[in-house]
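Bench log, entry 3. Co-assembly request; chain sequences pasted below exactly as received.
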Amino acid sequence: MWLTRPLQERSTQLFLGILFFALIVVTVLHLALPEGNPLHVSAYTVTLLGKYLCYALLAVAVDLVWGYLGILSLGHGAFFALGGYAMGMYLMRQIGDRGTYGDPILPDFMVFLNWQELPWYWYGFDMAWFAFAMVLLAPGALALVFGWLAFRSRVTGVYLSIITQALTFALMLAFFRNEMGFGGNNGLTDFRDILGFNLRTDATRLGLFIATGIALAIGYVVCRGIVTSKLGRVSVACRDAEARTRFLGYRVERVQLFVFVVSAMLAGVAGALYVPQVGIINPSEFSPIFSIEIVVWVALGGRATLYGAVIGAILVNYAKTVFTGVMPDAWLFALGALFVLVTVFLPQGIAGLLRKRRKSTDDGSGPSESSSTSEATA
Amino acid sequence: MSIMTELAARDRVFNFLTPTDSPVDVRHGPILYLEDVNVSFDGFRAINNLNLTIDDGELRCIIGPNGAGKTTMMDIITGKTAPDTGSVWFGSRHNLLTMSEPDIASLGIGRKFQKPTVFEALTVFENLELAMAADKRVFPTLTAQMKPKHRERIEEVLETINLQDLRDRPAGILSHGQKQWLEIGMLLMQKPRLLLVDEPVAGMTEQEMERTAELLTSLAGKQSVVVVEHDMGFVRSIARKVTVLHQGSVLAEGSMDQVSNDPEVIKVYLGEEA
Amino acid sequence: MSIPRWLTFFLMVLLMTTAGTVSAQQQDQTPEALLEQLADASPRDTEAAIKAIATSGHERARAWLEAYGNNRISQVEATGRIVIVLNNRGRDWEVADALTGENLGEMSRRDLDRIAINNAVRRQLAGVLAMLDLFAKDVAVREAAALDLLGKVDDAIVEEVTARIEEEPDAGVRNRLEEALAIYQVEEQGSLDAIEVLSGSLHPRARAALNSAVASEDPARKAAAEQALASIQQKLRLNNAAETLYFGLSLGSVLVLAAIGLAITFGVMGVINMAHGELIMLGAYTTWGMQQLLPGQPGLALILSIPAGFLVAALAGIAIERSVIQFLKGRPLETLLATFGVSLILQQLVRTVISPLNRTVVTPEWMSGSLVINDALSLTLNRMYVIGFALLVFTALMLIMRRTRLGLEVRAVTQNRAMARSMGIKATRVDIMTFALGSGVAGLAGVALSQLTNVGPNLGQNYIIDSFMVVVFGGVGNLWGTLVAGLTLGTINQLLEPWAGAVLAKIIVLVFIILFIQKRPKGLFPQKGRAAEG
Amino acid sequence: EEGPIKVGVLHSLSGTMAISETALKDTVEMLIEKQNAEGGLLGRELEAVVVDPASNWPLFAEKARELLAQEEVDVIFGNWTSVSRKSVLPVVEELNGLLFYPVQYEGEESSENVFYTGAAPNQQAIPAVDYLMNEIGVERWVLAGTDYVYPRTTNKILETYLMDQGVAKEDIMINYTPFGHSDWQNIVSDIKDFGSAGKKTAVVSTINGDANVPFYRELGNQGISSTDIPVVAFSVGEQELSGIDTGPLVGHLAAWNYFMSVDSDANYDFIDEWIEYTGDETAVTNDPMEAHYIGFNMWVKAVQKAETTDVDAVKDAIIGVTVPNLTGGYATMMPNHHITKPVLIGEIQDNGQFAVVWETPSTVAGDAWSDYLPGSRDLIADWRAPMRCGNYNVKEGECGASAGEQAKAAE
Amino acid sequence: MPNESLMLQIEKLNQYYGESHTLWDLDLDVPQGQCTCVMGRNGVGKTTLMKCIMGEETVADGSIRFADDVELTKQPLEQRARLGIGYVPQGRQIFPLLTVEENLRTGLASRGDGRKTIPERVYELFPVLKEMKNRRGGDLSGGQQQQLAIGRALVLEPRLLILDEPGEGIQPNIVTQIGEVIRRLIAEDGLTVLLVEQKLPFARKFADSFAIIDRGRRMAEGEIAELSDELIKQYLTV
Ligand SMILES: Nc1ncnc2c1ncn2[C@@H]1O[C@H](COP(=O)(O)OP(=O)(O)OP(=O)(O)O)[C@@H](O)[C@H]1O
Ligand SMILES: Nc1ncnc2c1ncn2[C@@H]1O[C@H](COP(=O)(O)OP(=O)(O)OP(=O)(O)O)[C@@H](O)[C@H]1O
Ligand SMILES: [Mg+2]
Ligand SMILES: [Mg+2]
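Structure output for the full assembly:
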């Protein structure tokens, strides 16, 4: 099966090994050690790590479409945010009558703006299964419609990138509108519990962290499964010579659509896990700059490697956390310089560096990782 | 007939989707049929009332001056370019003008491009794998597994095109001639009913040309082959029937000897000494 | 300055109309007392105090009133002396004695008490000053004064205005005065004739007066007013359409300006230049810097900023090209990553070195205000200049790309670098020059934008997305496309805005772009044919 | 406890909000420096812990958690936008921290852990409208704002208030624009139109941040002067004006609880300190800075009163604490965690300052729950024992669920 | 052969693609005023050698001397064109989005005489280029593109013309014509031509001397008449 194939692969085993090891170490250090211990991992750190893992999953999703399919999506933040909103709506409904105004049905911001009844699109979000399904379906459906339109008309390259950007930009503006019924600029916040667990306890946080780790593992395996399958090679073929692929009898637009939708769903899952951990979802996740940032993580980690995307996302966000803390006035210099230096000195990103290491030590030709020569914008 | 039984057996890959058994209806003779085709680009008539018929199993050579419209004709057949007017039929059932490139390809029309185009990031082996006749829809492709017989087939072709040693190298590093061979290999993997081969021997040595000639002649009969080439030696060695295109329409048609003695052809194409 | 004859006349008029409120005794007040009265006046009494000054005939009276209107009259806390503030920036203010005009040097703000004025008083003041101006020699001043009087005529001055109409030699000014009078008459007396006078007027005040008449009980008045309004409405519609078009063009030209540099660096060279916005920002800051260097001459500074802004941004562009982009040849997508980093650095640099706050860029006199076509249609001057500037920049760029070797060489280099070099084209030089050109043009956009919007560290961020959108919508690599796309998107946006609102209009435009690209996957002016497919 | 008392500063130093928030960070640092120069607090040094949430709302929550959980700060001064406060709120409540929020906001909130030192709508919007109505005689209203909660709520309150005052619905025009809106041509033209209906018209602007510069520019260029249609702004302060050529704006209004131009010794001293601290002769002060000044001093006083920095003790001690404000009066912390403030209306001058034209006769206490919104009319907040409730419904005589829960948790 | 008459003298040239050694200690002399034909099977390194001469690939070691005095390996790519080397690469490499005329004009950059117009001779040789002056390069048919590539190289009026399989994709009568042009230019202008060609008849007819490369090494060279069937069998057949 295509999903089990990656499991036999050394690189995937290594990745999963490291990931699960990290999950266990963090859990143990968090639970077993007393707070005063220097090795103790605080709840704060656990949540922070959870956030990084969400971003990592998002980056993997972007790498799937960008690295292997050649679609530079500058709008993946939209899928992430939609997943996040689906989760946020569920969490809002879970508040029930514990809101400030005590309305059993309407979230606070609706009471506040004099809404009389729940808009239809909020129906069902009080049920976990429905909301979780929407986490996948909402971004998936958007990706399906958008992708169908775009790929069918053979929009490619920068044109595609820019309309993905327009998509997320339009959604951002729309979600900013208070009339939309998603809380406007303030978004959704003040969550209480998820599946009956109080969100404000360390145990729930740890649970979410572990769930995110598992989601990342699954997402990684799914992506890896796709890229190592024949479909993955067809994707690369589409990336490098779209027209030629068609003449071999592949329906390029369907391949693109399939991969794009899968990627959007993964992004949605990442968003859904992100929201309860950071405690807020607001339209700024739709902002084009955020989407560009995701691409930057991937590029920094190393495009078309998947694990590179994970490294890039974690590294950049860790750097952000550290820099904003230790040099609040100058952290942008450091981050900017990091981007510039990596691009100039590590053409293949950090993954490229690792690969070079590995090559020079064992000189074995690893899995046929494709280094792209022609670019999507050519 | 068998299509119905196949439709019923939904658990299998539909055989009729694989090109070898494509339901091309050739009972009425020609496998490819172009009538009154016209194409113009910004007012320039590249194809001008072109009529052409290729019989099933035929090996046809098409020659003609640069810019005569040979490549454009192939573009039309494969769905890359839409003609302004005219009709193009594959067998007597399929109107190619209504179909998309992948549909046409899965019907069983394979093509080698004039400028060799291979997937540079993929290895030689993977290039061949992708070209292999198979169910090319998304999910079957996702779950596809390499069976020994597939591997054998690829190895076989690798040998034919003499690229065994480079099988695991990315196709991007191949030399020009090697890419030509790889493209031919991909065409072979596709097992199409109709092969459109645009300048196969450009950049090949004499010896290689001979091999290519052998290869193409051996295909003819089972498959139909249309070859475009400027190397007269090569054309002569394979040609049965030759069509000469000029300014977008047929200038002459016949055996190689007939054509090469046609004064018009000599004037516009061959030059004095040919 | 001697007291002009008219002032005596004016004085008499005022005396008559405000008889009883201004007693004869106040006439003889010393200048000190006049100012004292103003300083001590409770809000209710300020009116009287102003009038007292206006009618005092003191040679500085006008200066006082103007200073008062500008909030420049203060009282020294310790001595009670009334001073005029000459410079009110910072902690220490430069003051002059109100009575003598003697410059008293700087004085701590702590020691001064401002003599308060508010809008209501300012309105009265404006009326009084306008009345004074009606006697000026210069027709333009009189006309402005008359225009100013629209809606400001009240019982106090109506007689005087009527009188002026008789005396006024200039027809234009007379019409204005009649209009002003008519507004008063419509509002206060409901005169039917006056409605007639106003029926052709496009001035908002006239409409205001008519609207108030529509609300009246009297059917005749109501009908007349409605009819007058209807005829005005008719004209207004046309004017509104013209105005919307102008708004569209103006927004469009801003988009074009912002995008045109990107059309070079991204469209032609293929560098996904995320720092483009920051290059625009540099141009805007150059304008600010120039104005700091040349205080008091904002116009000159602005003009000098055009070459300076170009230069600064071009140099920055060269620095970016040399330090980063040259290492990314053949990896266009990675330029996104690197230039994103550069953009972060530039933004923070401005924040740290200059300030996180917005900077003030002054609009020179000749660029502020608007070109009045009629009372309902006036084209704002700053935007008019920007439209012209955008077209100018576009033309210049077009010429460079079409007429010089640079245009040809840069396209050759981007299409096939190795081959271009094999043909002897100095690719490195071409890269530097082109990038400098694109960046310089971004700088020019910054100079222009400094006249429209904030000059701050976020300036660039606000334009980068739109710029990419415009370039791509127009068709990458096509300068005409950028022009047409910018103007189109701007106009669509402005056409939609009145009925959809600003947010929705923007959303619709974005959706429009998405759908349009479906129809034309390579933008407005696509590269057609085999060549484009490669 | 030994070691310094840690004061968290949670203001964006980068991103879109850096424009406004950087000065607030500096203000807190200055206040801390001054307090230390005066011998610290409870004999201990104060130490600022500054982080940069980078105008990113989720990051605000994360940074708040970092400050409270990792750095273990004793108090946080921070936030500007409502959304950032909403994002931080659950964190300070969960970790039982103290947050002083210095910006005017939409109200409708009272948290046990948050002290609102900026104006609630009744301390800014309503008096401003009263002024326009009574002193200027405005009858027709444009409520223009950026599309987010603060303008939405404020406008909602104002709309109800105006209609209560007998203003007809067609005399109110409401308009929302996106953040950073820069093309105001159409809207200004609409306002001009709206103002030509024969009634005195004014614009009540809740336009946020950067969008103001192009807005005012367009007003000036389309020839709308303050005498025709005055604009009263709730988000435009000295700092915003420092980036605008104010020449054409003279006479437009703003409503705040403090202006830099206020003629009081406390203010002049503060300005002197500020200029000295920043080393910039042209540095300006503004209302949120005063709010931090008040908030900081209140906290200091409460800590002194409680003789500990313990959050619960300080929370109890601070209610009723009175400190001088910068306008020559006093501010008191009310039981609903809002403070008393004077309301000032100022006119823009050509030097980028405001000249006060009107002022409430006495200070106004901030309302957590507006009297003009149906949902909150009956709610009050009182954090003193025994009520300890942020949203007590006087009609039903019970505390809203969430607050009740908190109260329980607190015991 | 006297040294003066060498246009190009290549000594001990080594080239690598990453780790794969493509050219091995390769020597090659190209006499002035002659047409030298380089032959060899697919993938032996002919194109690579041409790229090394043009500077598109860097050489590991060895020397390439041009016209006796210039060491080409030390010259930047652009400079080589300015020295008078015209290059017609394999695969045409025309600029697809430039018009035919613009493609030709790129060659004007490195002409020493600062000429601004395209020499009429180019159009005479390839009339189709004049006819299609305003069409984009990429729209041309394969053979037309090949003609354009040759024309473009001639715009430089080079001293040394490098042709990498110039006849590929061109109709027979024009192929012959190209051969004749080469001869004419050699005779009239003293042009030196370095030709890569697989087609024996063409090589035999228009070249003066030959060199055979196999696996990156030069295996044989000599006057074209000396090209024996033996050599062909050994090196040019598979
Ligand atoms: N998109 C296009 N725009 C303009 N002209 C075109 C376009 N495509 C093809 N042509 C022209 O149409 C003619 C036919 O081109 P085509 O490629 O079919 O020729 P060909 O017979 O394959 O020639 P060759 O033997 O040189 O490959 C040529 O003159 C070419 O310039
Ligand atoms: N960029 C590259 N990276 C790695 N290897 C390469 C690269 N380009 C070419 N090669 C290899 O170098 C060898 C020589 O290639 P070259 O193109 O010089 O061959 P050629 O003699 O011109 O062949 P042909 O007759 O097919 O054009 C080939 O085996 C090819 O696979
Ligand atoms: Mg062809
Ligand atoms: Mg070759």
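The mean pLDDT of chain A is 88. Strands of chain A lie at 188-189, 193-194, 197-198, 280-281.
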